[in-house]
UniProtKB/TrEMBL annotation:
<dbReference type="InterPro" id="IPR008676">
    <property type="entry name" value="MRG"/>
</dbReference>
<keyword id="KW-0805">Transcription regulation</keyword>
<keyword id="KW-0539">Nucleus</keyword>
<dbReference type="GO" id="GO:0032221">
    <property type="term" value="C:Rpd3S complex"/>
</dbReference>
<keyword id="KW-0804">Transcription</keyword>
<feature type="region of interest" description="Disordered">
    <location>
        <begin position="78"/>
        <end position="129"/>
    </location>
</feature>
<dbReference type="InterPro" id="IPR016197">
    <property type="entry name" value="Chromo-like_dom_sf"/>
</dbReference>
<dbReference type="GO" id="GO:0006338">
    <property type="term" value="P:chromatin remodeling"/>
</dbReference>
<protein>
    <recommendedName>
        <fullName>Chromatin modification-related protein EAF3</fullName>
    </recommendedName>
</protein>
<dbReference type="Pfam" id="PF05712">
    <property type="entry name" value="MRG"/>
</dbReference>
<feature type="compositionally biased region" description="Polar residues">
    <location>
        <begin position="83"/>
        <end position="94"/>
    </location>
</feature>
<dbReference type="InterPro" id="IPR000953">
    <property type="entry name" value="Chromo/chromo_shadow_dom"/>
</dbReference>
<comment type="subunit">
    <text>Component of the NuA4 histone acetyltransferase complex.</text>
</comment>
<keyword id="KW-0227">DNA damage</keyword>
<dbReference type="Pfam" id="PF22732">
    <property type="entry name" value="MSL3_chromo-like"/>
</dbReference>
<comment type="function">
    <text>Involved in deacetylation of histones, chromatin assembly and chromosome segregation. May act as a transcriptional oscillator, directing histone deacetylases to specific chromosomal domains. Component of the NuA4 histone acetyltransferase complex which is involved in transcriptional activation of selected genes principally by acetylation of nucleosomal histone H4 and H2A. The NuA4 complex is also involved in DNA repair.</text>
</comment>
<comment type="similarity">
    <text>Belongs to the MRG family.</text>
</comment>
Length: 301
């Protein structure tokens, strides 16, 4: 997921070479098309082509996933690549559909410095040792597994087929929404002593899941066919968060991406483990009676 940008959102031109976030990585790309809203209040979207990949990978992205092709952002790209699991070959920027079908997080792309097999010059052994330690630490952080019951996995596959194959959309706004589902979960858990550490942690987890969903929906949780619907629903309900408009279908997609999102935090292993326990408890809550939360039908797009 792209880090929050403090500067104002920039604009880009057709044929401009850019860097584009996909998950935690920056890829070189080219702007093919600019889609502007009719009322000019919504920010434009940009259709990008990733350098070196087939046209089937082309997609529309919001401006906050793009960065100008300059020295500062190229350094950022290198830093992100340097902190990624080494690979013997480049991998495609994984689309959300494959991430959902495989129930796994997306892979990195570039080889790390020193991974080509060449030996470092004499006197640089310690630097290479530190590099290996960084790689091992990263791989340990990536070893985060979140268990999703088979009945919810089946719903994810159905959701993928409905949207990507059948060109159908979840009717919005959803009832119950993500916010309402989180509130039902909160009410289902036996109350703990007010002000206790367990209560504080539980409240933080609920708030954190809502925040993760709100921040992730527009960047990593939508399939390409859903982008237009997303722009329209945000225009119709400008004062509402994504968690008040979308429901269980998109929330389940978040849990598929959660291992990768957690792997890129600075949380210690104990905190990660505690958070994973809470997330899996919430997933079990959804899995007990998912018919209450998922849409009965999808609409033609």
């Amino acid at each position: 997921m792209p880090p929050a940008a403090s500067q104002k959102v920039l604009t880009y031109e057709v044929q401009e070479r850019v860097l584009c976030f996909h998950g935690p990585m920056l890829y070189e790309a080219k702007v093919l098309e600019v889609k502007k809203s009719e009322d000019k209040k919504e920010l434009p979207e940009y259709k990008v082509h990733y350098k070196g990949w087939k046209n089937t990978w082309d997609e529309f992205v919001p401006a906050d996933r793009l960065r100008k092709m300059n020295e500062e952002n190229l350094r950022l790209q290198k830093e992100l690549n340097d902190n990624t699991k080494p690979s013997s070959k480049r991998t495609n920027p994984a689309p959300n559909a494959k991430a959902g079908m495989k129930m796994s997080s997306k892979a990195g792309s570039e080889d790390l410095p020193g991974a080509s097999g060449t030996l470092p010059p004499r006197g640089q052994k310690r630097g290479r040792e530190l590099e290996i330690e960084k790689e091992e630490d990263f791989m340990k952080r990536h070893d985060i597994k979140i268990t999703i019951p088979d009945n919810l996995k089946a719903l994810l596959v159905d959701d993928w087929e409905n949207v990507t194959k059948n060109q159908q959309l979840v009717p919005l706004p959803r009832n119950p929404s993500v916010s309402q589902i989180l509130q039902k979960y909160r009410e289902s858990v036996p109350k703990k002593r007010e002000g206790s550490a367990d209560t504080d942690i539980f409240d933080e987890v609920i708030a954190g899941l809502k925040l993760y969903f709100d921040k992730s929906l527009g960047t990593i949780l939508l399939y390409r066919f859903e982008r237009q619907q997303y722009m329209e629903i945000r225009k119709e309900h400008p004062g509402k968060e994504a968690s008040e408009l979308y429901g269980a279908e998109h929330l389940l997609r978040l849990f598929v991406s959660m291992p990768e999102l957690l792997a890129h935090t600075n949380m210690d292993p104990q905190s990660i483990s505690k958070l994973r326990e809470h997330i899996e408890d919430f997933i079990r809550f959804l899995g007990k009676n998912p018919e209450q939360y998922v849409a009965e039908h999808y609409e033609s797009g």
